[in-house]
Write a structure and sequence with these properties.
This protein has 322 residues and is α/β, with parallel strands linked by helices. It has 2 domains: 209 residues, P-loop containing nucleotide triphosphate hydrolases (Rossmann fold, 3-Layer(aba) Sandwich), CATH 3.40.50.300; 92 residues, Magnesium chelatase subunit I, C-Terminal domain (Helicase, Ruva Protein, domain 3). The chain has 14 helices and 13 strands. A 5-stranded parallel beta sheet has the order 3-6-9-1-10. It is globular, with a radius of gyration of 20 Å. The two termini are 23 Å apart.
Length: 322
């Protein structure tokens, strides 16, 4: 069995396990697993009651690693997230007590209900996978993933995520309302007990770390890399956008495309991988201008138009980008 075959086998177990809880949302589940394998962080944004927290918990429980949940509230302090140094009278010294981010999977529930000051406590750990408290740096365990949920910013009692915070999330997904048949199945499975109670881990942290190493070896041709740059560069020139995609967005797009290719059973990336992920990876980083707003076009529609306008590179081989 090849390394890609091994990856397919393990990820199928994980996705099937999550779908025991999340009915009829296979695309959202697949994107979530893609972000996990690409060493990214996931933002789940939608209206209340559509299963955002359920998806985050299901993904976390499917991996037999350490999991911590942080309920973001207006009175949450940055030290609650990162940790704090406390004086120990017995040893007459300060000792560090880790905060909620010290886990393989951190579920940040309703992240935009905390103040921007508390939200910013996640910046260092999401980008550098470490926490610095009182001048001392503490590394985080690998794999490390933040899965945050939020309601739309127009909801009462919420704060918009700062641009720097949004840029650190590899992808944003929306749950959407379920199909009638999926909602009916939910009434049968969720009405008496929570299906999360019976959900067991189907992979462990060591397995996920091996899959991440496999994804890193997926080949990306220079022409495909240039295609990714063309996409993000076009957002910076678009008259419909006040803020385009950052270089970090280009990096995240290529990393996510590697994971997407591996999930498709390939050890090389093709332009289709970038196209499939462009909206979830790029759109949440953009700020639309007056022209797009007047036309009723959101960032997702702008990204879709940009994808259609950029020439797709041709393969230098019959079926492979090398």
């Amino acid at each position: 069995m090849t390394s890609v075959d091994t990856l397919e086998t393990v990820t199928r177990r994980v996705t099937d396990n999550i779908e025991k809880v999340i009915e009829g949302k296979s695309d959202v589940v697949r994107t979530s697993v893609t972000v996990l394998l690409a060493e990214g962080h996931l933002l789940i944004e939608d209206v209340p009651g559509v299963g955002k927290t359920m998806l985050a918990k299901a993904l976390a429980r499917s991996i037999d690693g350490t999991v911590k949940r942080i309920q973001f509230t207006p009175d949450l302090l940055p030290s609650d997230v990162t940790g704090v140094s406390i004086y120990n009278r017995d040893t007459r010294d300060f000792e560090f007590r880790p905060g909620g981010v010290f886990a393989n999977v951190v579920v940040g529930d309703e992240i935009n209900r905390a103040s921007p000051k508390t939200q910013s406590a996640l910046l260092e750990c999401m980008e550098e996978r470490q926490v610095t408290v009182d001048g001392t740096t503490y590394p985080l365990d690998a794999p490390f993933m933040v899965i945050a949920t939020q309601n739309p910013i127009e909801m009462e009692g919420t704060y918009p995520l700062p641009e720097a915070q949004r840029d650190r999330f590899m992808a944003r997904v929306s749950m959407g309302y379920p199909l009638p048949k999926s909602e009916l199945a939910m009434l049968d499975s969720h009405s008496t007990t929570s299906p999360l109670d019976d959900l067991e881990a189907v992979a462990d942290a060591a397995e996920i770390a091996k899959l991440v190493d496999i994804v890193r070896t997926v080949h990306v041709a220079d022409t495909v890399k240039q295609y990714a740059i063309d996409i993000t560069s076009a957002t910076r020139r678009s008259p419909e956008l006040r803020l385009g995609a950052s270089p970090r967005a280009t990096l995240h797009l290529v990393r996510a495309a590697r994971a997407h290719a591996a999930l498709e059973g390939r050890d090389y990336v093709i332009p289709d991988d970038l196209q499939a992920l462009a909206v979830p990876v790029i759109a949440h980083r953009l700020i639309t201008g007056l022209e797009a707003q007047m036309g009723g076009r959101g960032a997702e529609q702008v990204v879709t138009s940009i994808i259609r306008s950029i020439p797709v590179p041709e393969s230098t081989h019959s079926d492979r980008y090398v």
